[in-house]
Specification:
single chain, alpha/beta, Spore Coat Polysaccharide Biosynthesis Protein SpsA, Chain A, two-stranded antiparallel ribbon
């Protein structure tokens, strides 16, 4: 298994986010360290910026320079696969570059889904939602899946909605998606050739492109959740406290 961490320099809310200092280390190094604690055979940062490339090499990591024109992390990973001539059957884990609190065990669990189920080209994780506010929050992506634990749909809307009991709090709030993906390298090449589809645009969820093309996404339900990612200055303050402790 190879972990690829897509990392771009530009961020509207936190410019230069991957290089922001968190307790003496750049953010990207904390993410890299999460991957090191998994069973990864190789960890690569795929970036669009020489400064990030240099920072990764300074702490002893592996990094490659990719285009600054990519619209998604998956597209950046696809270029990395091409640059590195990675074989089609290799399992790739997409670890987002702003997730410094991703448990290594979760990386390993997603990898195991593909190791143990060779028919699936893609895998991800979710957790049970137990809070109504979280269930209704559009920033928490929800997932529903079938009897074989394959995703039926992902949405920012609260799904499945308790239609028969609209006025009361439902006993079960469904499942929240965790933004970590595993793929077979050959599938990423195929996926990147497909145009963006309407449901993907509407929800702003790129995994819906795979479902649109009838790709089976295997889902595992996990108990150990990642800490917050770094999207805002407020997130950054929380992550600094967590890592300091």
């Amino acid at each position: 298994m190879i972990v690829i961490i897509p990392s771009r320099y530009d961020s509207v809310r936190l410019p230069g986010k991957p290089l922001i200092d968190i307790n003496g280390k750049p953010l990207i190094e904390h993410v890299y360290n999460c991957a090191q604690d998994s069973n990864a055979d190789r960890i690569i940062v795929a970036t669009d910026d020489e400064r990030i490339l240099s920072a990764v090499k300074d702490f002893g990591g592996e990094a490659i320079l990719t285009s600054n024109q990519h619209q998604s992390g998956t597209d950046r990973i696809n270029e990395a696969i091409d640059i590195l001539s990675i074989k089609d059957n290799e399992i790739i884990i997409n670890l987002q570059g702003d997730e410094p609190l991703m448990p290594a065990s979760l990386i390993s669990e997603v990898t195991s889904l593909l190791d143990e189920n060779s028919v699936y080209p893609m895998a991800t994780a979710c957790h049970r939602i137990t809070d109504e506010k979280e269930f209704k929050n559009p920033n928490m992506v929800k997932v529903v899946f079938d009897k074989n634990d394959c995703a039926l749909y992902f949405s920012r809307a609260p799904i499945p909605w308790p239609a028969a009991n609209k006025k009361s709090t439902p006993a079960i709030f469904g499942y929240g998606h965790i933004g970590i993906y595993g793929y077979r390298a050959g599938f990423i090449k195929q996926y990147s050739q497909w145009p963006v589809v309407d449901i993907e645009k509407s929800e702003k969820l790129e995994q819906l492109r795979a479902l649109y093309h009838d790709i089976k996404i295997k889902v595992c339900v996990v108990d150990k959740l990642p800490g917050p990612g770094v999207d805002t200055p407020e997130d950054l303050a929380v992550v600094k406290k967590v890592l300091a402790s």
